[in-house]
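Bumping with the actual sequence this time:
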Amino acid sequence: MELTLLSVGTVLVTKVVPVAIAILFFGLIILIHEFGHFIFAKLFGVKVNEFAIGMGPTILKKQGKETKYALRLFPIGGFVAMEGEGEESKDERAYCNQKVWKRMIILSAGAVFNLILGLIVCFFLVSSEDLIGTNEILQFYDGSVSSEKLQVGDEIIEIDEKRVFSDYDISFLMQRNGTGYYDFVVKRDGKKVVLEDVPFAKRTSGNFTYASDCTIASVSAKLKKAGMKDGDIITSVNGVPVENGNELIMAINMDSDYIYDLTVKRGEEELSFSGVEFMTATVFDFVILGEEKGVLSVTKAAFGYALSMGRMVYLSLFDLLRGQYGMSDLAGPIGTVSVITDIAETSVVTADWTSLFMILAMITINIGLFNLLPVPALDGGHLFFMFIELIVRKPIPQKYASWIHAAGLVLLLIFMALISFSDLYKWISGIGFY
């Protein structure tokens, strides 16, 4: 009985709790967003008919003096239903009858509150560190490649023409470039110095964990698509036999293109995989300087982290549009919850919550900025129409605005459906999300 209870308790802690944390995280982000709309609508005297968290059927509700507060079944969104929103109304308190600047504040408040939440989380993350990371190089590791051009004491200002706001930017900006060569702008002895084609080594672990006998586990989604599975035993790499983990990694690192022909043993069966591409990562061969914490340094670092995460959203969107990423690289609600759950599971076991709060900051800043994009049906699309109204001093006819936003909503729903189907396929097939 004790063993059974212990097993149940272990399952609850390692499986149920992480899922609950993921749902609570999404709920918090949605709540903060909708509360931004709600509180400014109330401050400006706009009639709010319903404040809801979640979508679909109502599971809990409470009727206030004027507003119905509801919790709905599916934790994938929420809304603030204001009188006269998306329709004509003769009520003087209706949203559509408010001055344009008031409507713009109400509409943008949700995204702004998400960004504020992200900044608060960044402040917490920076405050929890022993030292605050800077952009200054403290020292190089033995065998460093980048020290051919970089020097101890260099303060990194730009990488590939992108400003470095925080130490977080250094890793992100360098991972965008797969060549292993980067253009740096550094501050050296008080002067800006431009350094072109700074070299860095590239390495890959093979995108899986492995045992001493070359049995692989935790295969990445990319390798699973190629047909590999957890438990496969790698017997050769590009025709070179391997018998242990050291030989495996040596064989992998011999190929600078990181594209391999692999032979694996799966039970009694021997399988061959041609042209298997491994993901690579730049080897950071220097250590950055850490500084002591203070109110000003923590505040500056928190803003730097928030700016870095915010810009990452737009750079990633740009990379998607120029074809660097495909649909299979995107994750929708299912994929995002799965990633959060995995991180939460690790956090529960290790009692280290840093990664979990980092992804909370990234998601809330992502949602805040994404909602400000001038896309029909998003808050940014509505704001764009209001900017036009400010310029021409006349609102766009409601019926035309409704048609445009309805079309935008249909396209967004189709896009989300495609991503969700991709998520389901990854989940059901066992490919995974990373």
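The tokens above came from a reply further down the thread. The two ends are 38 Å apart (CA to CA).
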